[in-house]
Task: structure prediction
Amino acid sequence: MTDYLAAAMAMLGPAQNRYADPAAWDKLHAEVGIRLPTDYQTLVDAYAPIQLNGHLYLHHPATERWNLGQDIRDTVRAWSEVSWDGLDPEEDPRLLFGLTELSFGTRDGLWPIAGTDRGETIFLVVANATAPWLLTEDGEGGWARYDMSFAEWLYRYLMGEDMAGPNTSAFYPGPVQLRRLPMTADERPEPWSGPDRGM
Result:
């Protein structure tokens, strides 16, 4: 069985752990009322704040800029303002995935944990499940469910699979492209490449 956390990190290269801080995670978990998965925390600590392959953003709970807690709150607020009445059955995530309600940032709701510059949002679903699962929205009203860990989702995303629904792949051959996000107004993004993947 594949160790997806190790496989994803092998593609991304050595962990940087620039902002790893258990207290920041404890504070975030206390604020949101849920615990984010360990594999997700490990990846965020290792690399975030970062942009991967030109599209996917990961924020960190210990930084002022690109702060994960602030990003979650802002995204929850934006999604909570959407009206979900009158959706076609094939566009209603409640009907598609058996959700009793569609709420954001609640114990039984969806938690935005990552996003792309293409408008895709990756949500964690922790309620009524033996294991957390992911729900993605493709930026145009299309939803997809992924019964897997975030590490597996990220691995498959980096391998070029459709990980936000049909026709959403973002495959780039060669090493994964990483871009450290600027932490002050004077800094510039710092790009580098992961190890050779033989692709």
In short: The longest helix spans residues 68-80. Residues 161 and 167 are 9 Å apart (CA to CA).
